[in-house]
Amino acid sequence: MALTSSTTPKGIVITVPVLVLAASAAAIFLVFLLSSLSSCSCPSNINISTSPVSASTAEPRVPVSTADDDAGGGAGRVVVSTTKEDVEWVKDQIRLNGLHMQDNVLRKGINPRTRAQQLQDLEQFKGISHYEGPEANNHTAFPCPGGLLVEEHHSNYGEPWAGGRDVFEFLAESSHLTPDSRVLEIGCGTLRVGLHFIRYLNPEHFHCLERDELSLMAAFRYELPSQGLLYKRPLIVKGEDMDFTMFGSGVVYDLIYASAVFLHMPDKLVWVGLERLASKLKPYDGRIFVSHNIKFCSRMGGEECTKRLTSLGLEYIGKHTHDSLLFNHYEIWFGFRRSKE
């Protein structure tokens, strides 16, 4: 039996087998198309903030891939956030193991020590096994002072050391950073925040200007070696008075930030710094973030401050807040951007 098209003048004949074969081919093509779409490796948005921020904060950035991810056959994503799913997972692990917070007291195999006691033990007993004789004759490649080994510098801040991670996540999201971004911190101290940027960014992409010598020694002699980050070669320079010449004239930053630094400086010096940094900030997309307050600006009055910023090619973009993941705390940040080339 044959089917004849009534609209064709020449009476083209289409047999049933041919019609069935065409329908089968179309079905196979449809299955292949749906399979291809379902296996698409297109990235999905990841919110890298652990807590809500102000409405003016930028949208969550799209995950990016790095050469290391691609070479290693990974998922092609750079994950720097703590998600709700992550928090629920760790809560489940605590619940499944029947864990409850206990007092840190002497118990079998565990002898709690304060930092002062640790330092005394280290200086008096030098550990369970150690090399005797002059330093030059032992096998320690880079001997570290005892005060740094017991992490006394972790208590130099007005909040827990863990808060550095919160600051990193907020700034990274707000500035849409990728590993190829360049970051400058004014006053990085002992790298409470900087460690996270150094780990995330490509080698040599983190810069810092710091004046305190002990903080710099803690960064170079303990934090970077102990965290396995020496290969990242961050450019950390001892200096003050907002002198950024040692970082080079051609560098352009995606993020410049100062955490609890500008409030300790004379207003005049802050403005000197902003004037020198304005041309080093990526136009439009780059961000400057200042924590706690901007009294260097508010003391001038809103209109006068706006004029001063405009003369430098900068624009105030709003006040932001972010919460901590691990303790009851939030920080305030004020954002600026470069408004012209």
UniProtKB/TrEMBL annotation:
It comes from the Eukaryota. The chain crosses the membrane at residues 12-34. Residues 51-75 are annotated as: Disordered. Keywords: Membrane, Transmembrane, Transmembrane helix. CDD domains: AdoMet_MTases (cd02440). This is S-adenosylmethionine-dependent methyltransferase. It comes from Castanea mollissima (Chinese chestnut).
